[in-house]
Structures are given as C-alpha cells and as structure tokens.
Specification:
The chain is mainly β. Helices cover 0% and strands 43% of the residues. It has 2 domains: 162 residues, Jelly Rolls (Sandwich); 137 residues, Jelly Rolls (Sandwich), CATH 2.60.120.
Length: 373
C-alpha cells in the first residue's frame, strides 16, 4: 500500500493497514480458533501464544522466543523509540506458520501528547528490512475504551507492509498520561524468497509534554482514533465469499464532535468503502480502492474535513459502513476480508471523554463475539 501525503504534514492514510497478504485456502493449515462464545475452541498449547485482539481474532501461534520491547526516550529531541525484536523470518512462511512475538506492553513515560508514528524494519546492523514481512502491528491503550465500541480497547496506531508513516497533524495530538499501558501486538510473515535473521521493528514517536509554564508550547486538541467497522463492534476479519459481495455494519456515535479526516482499510479484492450518516441521510465519504491487475490492494484514498472545521457528528447519529469486494478465486476465503473506515474524532466537550478511562484492561474473550449484519 502506498503512503499518501496530503496537505503537507497531514497524513491520514490507512490508519490501520495490515500487509496485503494474498488470501489463501487455509483448510490444510492451522486454523484460527475463536474464544469466548466458542466453547468447543481448542486451547493453545503451552508453547503457543493466543492472540485475542479484535484484529488477531483469537489465532493460535507458536511463540517467537527472545523477542523483547526496548524503549528509549530522547528528551532533547522529544521522541521515544520503541524497538521490538529480534525476530527470525524464514522465507516463504505464512503468518499462520510464523512464530509470532508475544504481546508486549509499553508504559507511557510522559503526561502529554503523542504526535506521530514513524515505523521501520531493520536488521541487527541497522540495515533496512523490507516492510513486506510485517503483516501488521497494532497499538492498543489498555487504560482507555474505544469511544464507538466500549467493549474494545482504544486502538491508537497500526501499520502493515506499506509501513504507513503517520505524520503530525498540527494543533492535534493523542493524549496520554504517565504510566498508561500501551499493548503492542505484532504479526510477521515472509512471502519473499529471502530469509531475514534478527529483524527489528522500530517505531519513532515524537511527543509533546503537558505545558508546565506560559513559555511552553500551547496545549493540543485531543484526537480519538475512530474505527468504523463493517462488523460493528466485533472481530474485524470475516469470510469472503466467491464473486461480488457487500457487507455492512453500523455503529452509534455517543459524543458530539467532528471527524477531521477518514481513510479506509480493505484486503485483496476489495473495491470500495462507503461511510454514511444514516441519521442525517448523508454520505460522509466514498473511498474507491486501488489495486493491481490481480486484485491485490495497493491503496485506499483519504478524505479530509479538517480544512472545513471537520464533519460534524452528533450524539445518537447512526453510522453505516459498507465494504464491497469481488473475489475471483472461485472459493470462500476464510478470514479473507476486512472493511474499516478509519479517522480521527475531536469531541466538542472533551471532559466527557474522561468516561472512557479505566484502570484495568478488559477480558479479551470478548474478541470471540461476532456482530454480523
């Protein structure tokens, strides 16, 4: 997926964009097993890690041993660099068969705002490793609930093989408090002919601390990542039928505010994402995907509202998300699709958003619940 730069420093392209691994028939491979309502689900083996996040969908994977999280703060540059690794990535290995890093937790070291996210992959010598081997990485704030789907943790950053670079939105930032726990879920694979040993994922995060005096930088407006999913508040992945198909879902806005921009996420063979405000009978955005001749997704466009003060949402507005696909393989692709409109939301009364804070992370067996429409 190509990085899309718009309005200089503003980039809102594919806020969550896992690698576009060509969907395969996994009937003979390890199948993802859901938890929660599926009482017959197999339990992970002692040497397996079970991903419970809404993107991971309760998949079982062997644990990649020795993978740790290193965090370095550069106080002068006002950046923190997170480093996950080392990871050994043999050639021609799917994400289902690749030993995966365990979930790792970073504790925010400041009171202030995270301003941007700059990911890259390197080897032990610092040489570049192609982003192709990153299936996806996702950052979840364990101390905050999602403002659209309170059963989920707040999903604050994601990237995939395109290594989407989230640049700063002037005047805005993601508010964090010292000690907040940010869970990092990383999934690797390697569809290439080259093996990579001791690879590391690095994410550089510029930050601004809360102003301590009048001479300090002005405070920022708080943004809340908005993940509007065709599966509503359930698992993001779903089975993709053969041929043309459309899946829709709805979420209800719980706070007054504005959407300052929206992009989207699809998988291969995805054609379009449409976001509608059903209550106002308006189409918020129509996002036509770009793909290569084989249907492999290359990009989903971004629509901005920040220059007009944002697209207004009101408490009680029902949002409808639609994703269309055209699967030419002639078979159903298990967990082969996602359809997500992804943006940034700014609340009219930010004090009301304090209700999203929680001290304990929720039970992840909620990830087993599906909300099909």
């Amino acid at each position: 997926m190509k990085t899309i730069a718009i309005c200089g420093a503003f980039l809102l392209a594919a806020i969550f964009a896992p690698a576009q691994e060509k969907p395969v028939d996994t009937s003979k491979e390890l199948q993802p097993t859901h938890t929660g309502l599926d009482e017959g689900a197999a339990k992970p083996l002692p040497t397996q890690h079970e991903h419970h996040g809404f993107m991971q969908e309760g998949m079982h994977h062997a644990v990649a041993k020795g993978v740790t999280l290193d965090a370095k703060v550069d106080a002068a540059a006002h950046t923190v660099t997170l480093r996950v690794g080392p990871m050994n990535l043999p050639a021609h290995t799917s994400h289902l068969k690749m030993p995966q890093p365990p979930d790792l937790v970073w504790e925010a070291p400041i009171d202030g705002w995270l301003l941007a996210y700059h990911p890259k992959l390197v080897d032990a010598s610092g040489n570049a490793v192609p982003g192709t081997v990153l299936h996806h990485v996702a950052f979840w704030n364990e101390n905050r609930a999602d403002f659209l789907c309170p059963n989920k943790e707040e999903h604050i950053f994601g990237a995939g093989s395109e290594m989407t670079d989230w640049t700063e939105v002037p005047g805005y930032g993601y508010r964090v408090h010292n000690g907040e726990k940010i869970r990092i879920e990383t999934m690797m694979y390697n569809p290439t002919n080259t093996s990579y040993d001791k690879a590391y994922l690095e994410v550089v995060i510029p930050f601004q601390e809360t102003p301590g005096d009048a001479s300090a930088a002005a405070p920022r407006k708080n943004v809340y990542p908005a993940w509007m999913d065709v599966t509503s508040c359930g698992n993001s992945g779903y089975d993709l039928p053969s041929g043309k198909s459309e899946k829709t879902g709805t979420v209800t806005v719980k706070y007054d505010g504005v959407l300052i921009g929206v992009g989207g996420h699809l998988h291969d063979y995805g054609k379009q994402i449409v976001l509608e405000d059903v209550s106002r009978k308006e189409t918020v955005a129509t996002l036509d995907a770009k793909a290569d001749a084989q249907g492999h997704l290359e990009s989903v466009p971004v629509k901005l509202f920040v220059q007009d003060g944002g697209y207004k949402f009101a408490t009680g507005d029902v949002l409808k998300i639609s994703a269309t696909y055209d699967n030419p393989t002639g078979k159903l692709l298990h967990n082969g699709a996602m359809g997500i409109a992804v943006g940034y939301f700014v609340a009219t009364d930010d004090t009301k958003m304090a209700a999203l804070r929680r001290n304990e992370k929720p039970p992840h067996d909620m990830a087993g619940i599906s909300h099909d429409h």
